Amino acid sequence: MNCNVAIVWMHDYIDGELPREDSLTLKQHLLSCPGCRARFEQLEKTEALLSSVMAEPKGQAMTPAASAALTDKILKQIPPPARHRDWTGWIRRHPAVTAAAVFVVVMLASLSPTVNNGSELIVRGDDLKQVVIDGHTVIVPEGVKILGNLTVENGTADVRGDVEGSVTVIDGSLLTASTAHIAGQSRMIDQLLDRFWYKVTQSFGNTP
What is the pLDDT of residue 118? Predict the structure, then answer.
């Protein structure tokens, strides 16, 4: 399994949206790839940290005990500085902001390998049996109906038939014929910031 594919799958796995067969493939890759395994563990820790922040009752002031507990969780995610420890006081006074900053750093770190090195075509979807792949072009032929979403990374999505879901193109282009029908959204994600917000919305999409 390619590490770039594993990085994308990690977020879907944490969100509980990765199919069972793909989950098994990802787990096997993590067992054999120390780098991806370390990244996955870091993402899991960040997800747990954010969940604890979002679980706090809205509209209520945080008690000193709860604030101290949350700060301890955050500080465990941040390596202790060798010098200039004065800023730790600011962290203790702003635990929620610190948690958000940790999340941003981890998300950008997880995106950077894909942005810098990702040239391999990646195709994901719920129904890919009738999809035609020609080089870096992913074709939904005319008269064909794809059930569910379609995601194409580092390539061109050429939609001529029906997609009963959303089409997302990351670092590529989207072509739609006059015969094409896309039931959901059509999204083009080209810049690093766009990719970041895409990952954020995917991470929080299932949060009540």
Answer: 52
